[in-house]
Amino acid sequence: MVAIPLVNSAGVALHLQMSHRGVLKTTRISAEGSCSRCQKDPRFDRAFGHFNEDLFSKTYGFIGDIQKDEKQKLHESLRNEKNPHRKFAIKQTIERMNSMHKTKERKEQRQKLVREHRKLDAKLVEQGKTPYYLKRGDMKHLEIAEEFERVKRRLGEDANIEKFIEKKRKRKASKQKKFMPNRPEGGQ
Predict the structure, then answer these.
(1) % of the chain residues with pLDDT over 90
(2) Is the model more confident about 81 or about 54?
(3) Which residues contact residue 19 at a Cβ distance below 8 angstroms, ignoring those fewer than 6 apart?
(4) What is the phi/psi pair of residue 5, to 5°?
(5) What pLDDT was estimated at residue 26?
(6) What are the Basic residues biased-composition ranges (predicted)?
């Protein structure tokens, strides 16, 4: 449905002509850029500068401490709560906070790996070698290697990595199996 502004021969604006098919909307058509109060999103506007994630995390690092205190209070209220609906809601909130924390840790670990690679790359460039830019696949390999190093540190040097990999593979397979559609009954 298109609104067409009409102008008579004297240049006077007439009523808008609209299609009779469909529901008429009462919204007015405004000229481009005539909004008196345009809202700007600082995330996407260049006037606000480039977003520095490291500086942001250093500036607002105290929020992590606040979230830890909040999580402890939620655990206490979960123990004292009698209402099953509220208990369920509190459990969901705690799980959400835990998953957000894990995601943040993973992101920080990835950033740490990238920083280390850039430092190493800068040293190699100083020696006269060509720089190497990490691709997604290479980044994934670095993350997996770092994870195995963490597992070795956690379980000890004589840890059986093959057992760990096998358990992880079985866990993933069971998750995928859970989301597969059931086969129809009837032997067809």
Answers:
(1) 32
(2) 81
(3) 1, 2
(4) -75, 135
(5) 63
(6) 166-180
